[in-house]
Write a structure and sequence with these properties.
four-stranded mixed β-sheet; alpha+beta
């Protein structure tokens, strides 16, 4: 089972004391002038310019700083150590998500010791496919952890390693590279259809680059324009 605990930093409140609470800073919405542009973004750098804009109707009183040009830092700020007040303490290959785990935690990015432990335990397989990359692999990477276009450098390196009898070392290096790509990956991209974390990764090497995918991962829940048909996504790149 994937293990979570209440965030020790915010105690589950999702907010922590602001280090500079109560201090002021120049309002970024009006550039510290107290007047925002009526159209577009930003404000005015001088008081004269702000006053002129107000008279001409091209500027309006900034509602963020109430026209003062300064904002006050709040007492608390968002906790960046957790998601929904929870942190993942253990997430190994094959572990299942708790039924009551918040959706946000599943979409959080794995990092630190927890992801390092997962990366060390997961099986990584290299699959060489003598084909060009697809349009999806080149531009979107949907369904993958990472999709890299290297214009054949990895493919050529493996071919050279095979001719020099150094292929095992080259494959190990590629597996290590795949594990490195896991840092910062959302846990949902490593979740299989049965709601458990993938036990195997595949590094698919083709003539245009390589793609790292979790074996049997759930399909990405993305909304694409109707013109992005399967034929377009799988179209071979020259």
């Amino acid at each position: 089972m994937i293990e979570t605990t209440v965030c020790p930093e915010c105690k589950g409140t999702q907010s922590v004391p602001h280090a500079a609470a109560g201090t002021t800073y120049s309002c970024v919405y009006c550039d510290g002038s107290g007047v925002r542009k009526a159209r577009g973004h930003g404000g005015y750098r001088t008081a004269a310019g702000a006053a002129k804009a107000l008279r001409a109707g091209t500027g309006i009183r900034c509602d963020v700083c109430s026209g003062t040009g300064e904002c006050v830092r709040p007492e608390t700020t968002r906790c960046y150590e957790c998601t929904d007040g929870l942190v993942i303490t253990s997430a190994l290959p094959g572990a299942a998500w708790p039924a009551d785990c918040p959706r946000g935690v599943r979409y959080a990015m794995g990092s630190g010791e927890v992801m390092d432990a997962y990366a060390a335990a997961v099986n990584v397989h290299v699959v060489a496919q003598n084909r060009p990359g697809t349009w999806n692999e080149s531009f979107l990477g949907i369904g993958s952890i990472v999709s890299t276009t290297d214009y054949g450098r990895m493919w050529d390196a493996l071919v050279k390693a095979a001719s020099e009898d150094t292929l095992p070392a080259a494959l190990d290096a590629l597996r290590d590279k795949a594990r490195e790509h896991l840092s910062g990956t959302q846990w949902c991209k490593l979740t299989r259809a049965d709601d458990t974390l993938a036990t195997d990764l595949a590094v698919v090497v083709h003539r245009n680059g390589y793609t790292v995918v979790a074996v049997n991962a759930k399909p990405d829940a993305v909304s694409l324009p109707p013109t992005y048909t399967e034929q377009v996504l799988s179209r071979p790149m020259a």
